[in-house]
Write a structure and sequence with these properties.
disordered N terminus, 2 strands, 3 helices, alpha+beta
């Protein structure tokens, strides 16, 4: 069961009973960031833009994990999105 709590129209928290709740919460925050960036650029908001935005963010997280020598943890965490 998913519960979305909207606080002050700025903070979205997601409580989900699954082992991937942190990844899903992070994706939700990335989606919010994508919406803000798209709005600031004046582009049309489209779900396809978000799908194109995710791989770039995952690449950034992968580079951070590589620098921290935590690449195995990165793959365990994000495996179901990297398919």
């Amino acid at each position: 069961m998913v519960f979305f709590i909207l606080l002050n129209s700025l903070i979205i928290k997601m409580l989900l009973r699954t082992k991937h709740w942190q990844v899903l919460n992070h994706c939700l925050l990335i989606a919010k960031y994508c919406i803000i960036c798209t709005s600031l650029r004046g582009d049309v908001l489209d779900f396809k833009n978000f799908l194109l935005f995710i791989p770039g963010k995952l690449e950034t997280l992968k580079e951070i994990a590589t620098a921290k020598k935590a690449l195995p943890k990165f793959y365990r965490t994000w495996a179901f999105l990297l398919l």
